[in-house]
TrEMBL record:
It comes from the Bacteria. This is ATP-binding cassette domain-containing protein. Residues 5-246 form the ABC transporter domain. It comes from Alkalicoccobacillus porphyridii. Keywords: ATP-binding, Nucleotide-binding. PANTHER family: SKFA PEPTIDE EXPORT ATP-BINDING PROTEIN SKFE. The keyword Protease does not apply. GO terms for molecular function: ATP binding; ATP hydrolysis activity. The keyword ATP-binding applies.
């Protein structure tokens, strides 16, 4: 299997603090990964290293077989779709655009539509809207969409340029129970298909790891506590250590549901 991501001995330091510590990690084509960890464990920092927004202090990073330092980061970024809260926070720039316009703007990774779109691009934007269950709101303006509809719109936007990898960074904040499950269901449906883009799903919550996710990278204090097939990583012991609280995992319908087994002393953590 071809390597989509390979990190060898990667460290990242800032202000004399080692934020990412000696990460060895390989993502192969056909795998979908969750990056899981508590607040401050290094998830966002790792994403910045993979997308070239920050440079590793040392170690080797290879994405799509291209080694950083010997390749154009811009060319690599064109092959990655990214759904992140920071993109949505800029939603005032999207004022006046409809749901389908925003999806289409992912074609050239722009805010708004500046370049000419082909008929094929427009068709694809409508098709993605339908696939995401946004048929009824495709012509509605962003400001009128619910949070759940917005998340789906930006996820469709991340898929618009047919990326080889899609990064979905903590997408469920602000979603109610049903909207969260609907979003996760879309994600699962899309990524269980053969030849779907490699998924990197970043979350604090194990129960958001949908069946389509095959592997988990569990971070703690910038280190990989465990990395591998999800059932080997999402164990009581690893999760309890990662989140500093005793955790019990129960698998149901191929989803890991967690229970905090003891709330004693939790307030002092
Ligand atoms: N540019 C920076 N300069 C200094 N420290 C930083 C910088 N970026 C991140 N950090 C620190 O590195 C640690 C990891 O941060 P990071 O944002 O990667 O964690 P995270 O797992 O994404 O957290 P969260 O789940 O809360 O979003 C934190 O202690 C953070 O304060």
């Amino acid at each position: 299997m071809v390597n989509v991501i390979k990190l060898e001995g990667v460290n990242w330091e800032r202000d004399q603090k080692r934020i990412i510590q000696n990460i060895q990690w390989e993502v192969k084509s056909g795998e979908h990964w969750a990056i899981l960890g508590a607040n401050g464990s290094g998830k966002t920092s790792l994403l910045k290293l993979i997308t070239g927004y920050e440079w590793a202090t040392n170690g080797k990073i290879t994405v799509f077989g291209e080694q950083f330092g010997q390749t154009s980061i811009l060319e690599i970024r064109k092959r990655i779709g990214w759904l992140s809260a920071s993109l949505e926070e800029r939603h005032r720039h999207y004022n006046g655009l409809t749901c389908v316009d925003i999806i289409a703007s992912g074609r050239h990774a722009s805010i708004g539509i500046h370049e000419e779109l082909s008929d094929h691009d427009v068709e694809r934007a409508y098709m993605l809207a339908d696939q995401m269950g946004l048929s009824k709101v495709k012509e509605a303006q962003l400001g009128t969409l619910s949070q759940g509809e917005r998340k789906k719109t930006f996820y469709a936007r991340a898929l618009m340029a047919a990326p080889e990898m899609v990064i979905v960074d903590e997408p469920t904040s602000g979603l109610d129970l049903l909207a969260r499950e609907q979003f996760l269901n879309q994600l699962h449906t899309h990524h269980q298909k053969e030849r779907s883009p490699t998924l990197l799903y970043v979350t604090h919550y194990p129960e958001e790891i949908v069946p389509a996710v095959t592997h988990v990278l569990l971070l703690k204090n910038g280190e990989a506590l465990a990395a591998g097939p999800k059932k080997e990583v999402l164990t009581n012991d690893y999760l309890s250590e990662a989140f500093d609280v005793p955790i019990h995992v129960a698998w149901r319908d191929e989803r890991p549901w967690i229970q905090i087994s003891s709330l004693e002393n939790i307030g002092s953590k």
